[in-house]
Amino acid sequence: MREDLDGRLRRLRACRDADAVIELGCDLVDAGRPEDAERCFRRAAELGDALGWFNLGNSLAARGRVEEAADAYERALAGGERDAWVNLGLVLEELGDLAGAMRAYRGAGAAGDTQGGLQLAFLLHEQGEHEQAIAVAAELAATGDDVAAAVVTCWQWAASHDTSLEVDLRAGADRFPGARVALAALLRVTDRAAEARFTLERGAKLGEVQAWLPLGNFYAEDLADVEAAEEAYRAGIAAGDSYCHHNLAVLLADRGDLDGAVEHFRLGAADGDDLAARALRELGG
């Protein structure tokens, strides 16, 4: 297989068939050769192929070269590759260009890409534009998008704690992890602790990062099981939820491990958690 790929790669400069060049690039990605794949996608782009620019953007983004990726996606769009809208939005978000990201997500939505519409809703929600975010997601839900419907219900619960949303939260739990967490919260406040625990543990087993923090809280607050809580917070940190640092730090401080607490407050603060930063200041760390 390697000899075949190397032979095809040696003929790259002479090849004027963009489809064949892109196919080789994809084969090289699958073979774990991203630098060689990038060469292929650049060649396809040089041949004027919009899909070549799109794949080049993906290759660059995967390797952290987001500014170059944004340029490649723009060129793909100029060539008519509408699938580039969402990916352009993602790299612009990473670059901190939120206005540009919103423009890209709106472009994706106008092109009929529901993922772009949802990304726009998420970005609006993160910026505190909750009503506008719900309106965007609700519009998608009205077209029959089950994920968007689950997102809307999750956000409605966060705003109202309306227990009449239970049916919709149950329907959305397997569509959007946040809906499962919201369902567990509803079950806790309606005195169904055993089912709440089962719901969160199921989310954790399914690999849903959002489940670990509330699961740790459940163990600590409802069961007074600090060992299980610590394991849950640490699992959440390993899965990428930086907010677990704060809760783990509080648990460590409560049992006298101030050095451990300061370390995790510091890690949480470094990842942008305001609660962890405030606690760190109070400790003088």
From TrEMBL:
GO terms of biological process kind: protein O-linked glycosylation
UniProt keywords, alphabetically: TPR repeat
One matching Pfam family: TPR_4
Start and stop residues of the TPR repeats: 50-83
GO molecular function: identical protein binding; protein O-acetylglucosaminyltransferase activity
Keyword Repressor: no
Entry keyword annotation includes Metal-binding: no
InterPro entries referenced in this protein's UniProt entry, alphabetically: OGT, TPR-4, TPR-like_helical_dom_sf, TPR_rpt
Name recorded for this polypeptide: Tetratricopeptide repeat-containing protein
